[in-house]
């Protein structure tokens, strides 16, 4: 089995990536910042969980070039799941992989909207431009890569849409509510990523998430929610113009959040383009995997909605 090194393994999506890697039988390594007894309790608990699973935990900084090279020389696959503030630091990882010279597959931090087919509002476009730099550096390095693209983090964004409505009879709808969104469960995003990383067919390709039963509009979600709860909700629409203005006038990170909302929920940038004949899609590549549908994800929020926290931008 290939040895997998995960950067950002204690983050929101990263922990799912690590669990999926272990579940699928891979020797798994996590490189992360040093922790101490004063670190956030959730990080400490995650470290305990990972150790009990057999994960090799390596503490260090991305600036420690020689250390990165020596660790990368011991593994086969590198997966980055770094948060938005650290996206550009993947250049340090690419430099280390070039020196190591042994990486069989590199998956950078992407997973969201497709960089090459989307133009977003400036606060979000700035982030996408950084991702494009990582793509270009990955290709130029000669390291075998796979880019995974075009999905919303299903539980996160459903939680974002629904958490504020627990005690309300009103739903906030961004734009017209008709744009389609791909809501892939985070666990499934990770499982698909591990499969892709080990698949010769996906080498040096962009792979899209577009499972048919993971796609829904905001209006679809409201209808499904009303059916599940037996309640009717008033819809409060926030027009596109207002969201654009928020992206222009709000302070960071609120301007970025407004631009992301515009891209995903108003323009429908996850699914507003046709896949090309030579594009690869995860549910077509791995038809035997039973992914979590939007309907199944909503069941979680009916019975046990988690507390919502914004991602760090």
UniProtKB/TrEMBL annotation:
Is Transcription regulation there in the keyword field?
no
The UniProt record lists the NmrA-like domain at: 2-296
Which GO molecular function, any one, fits this protein according to its record? oxidoreductase activity
Top-level taxon of origin: Eukaryota
Q: Which InterPro entries match?
A: NAD(P)-bd_dom_sf, NmrA-like, NmrA-type/Isoflavone_red_sf, PCBER-like
Q: Which UniProt keywords apply?
A: NADP, Oxidoreductase
The name this protein goes by in its record:
Isoeugenol synthase
Species of origin: Actinidia chinensis var. chinensis
Q: What is the lineage of its organism?
A: Eukaryota, Viridiplantae, Streptophyta, Embryophyta, Tracheophyta
């Amino acid at each position: 089995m290939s040895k997998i090194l995960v950067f950002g393994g204690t983050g929101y999506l990263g922990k799912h990536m690590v669990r999926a890697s272990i579940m699928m039988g891979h020797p798994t390594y996590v490189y992360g910042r040093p922790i101490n007894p004063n670190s956030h309790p959730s990080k400490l608990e995650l470290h305990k969980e990972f150790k009990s699973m057999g994960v090799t935990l390596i503490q260090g900084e991305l600036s420690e070039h020689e250390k990165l090279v020596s660790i990368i020389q011991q593994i086969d696959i590198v997966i980055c799941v770094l948060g938005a503030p650290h996206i550009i630091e993947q250049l340090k990882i690419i430099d280390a992989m070039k020196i190591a010279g042994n990486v069989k597959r590199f998956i950078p931090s992407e997973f969201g909207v497709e960089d090459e087919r989307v133009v977003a509002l400036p606060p979000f476009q700035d982030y996408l431009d950084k991702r494009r730099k990582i793509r270009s550096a990955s290709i130029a390095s000669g390291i075998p890569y796979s880019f995974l693209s075009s999905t919303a983090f299903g539980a996160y964004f459903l939680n974002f849409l629904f958490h504020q409505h627990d005690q309300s009879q009103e739903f906030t709808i961004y734009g017209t509510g008709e744009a389609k969104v791909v809501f892939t469960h985070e666990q499934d995003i990770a499982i698909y990523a591990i499969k892709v990383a080990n698949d010769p067919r996906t080498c040096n390709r962009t792979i899209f998430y577009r499972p048919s039963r993971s796609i829904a509009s905001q209006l679809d979600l409201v209808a499904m929610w009303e059916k599940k709860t037996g309640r009717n909700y008033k819809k409060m629409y926030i027009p596109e113009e207002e969201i654009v203005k928020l992206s222009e006038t709000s302070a960071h990170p609120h301007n970025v959040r407004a631009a992301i909302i515009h891209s995903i929920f108003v323009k429908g940038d996850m699914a507003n383009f046709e896949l090309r004949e030579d594009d690869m899609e995860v549910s077509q590549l791995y038809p035997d995997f039973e992914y979590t549908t939007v309907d199944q994800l909503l069941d979680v929020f009916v019975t046990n909605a988690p507390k919502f926290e914004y991602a760090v931008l």
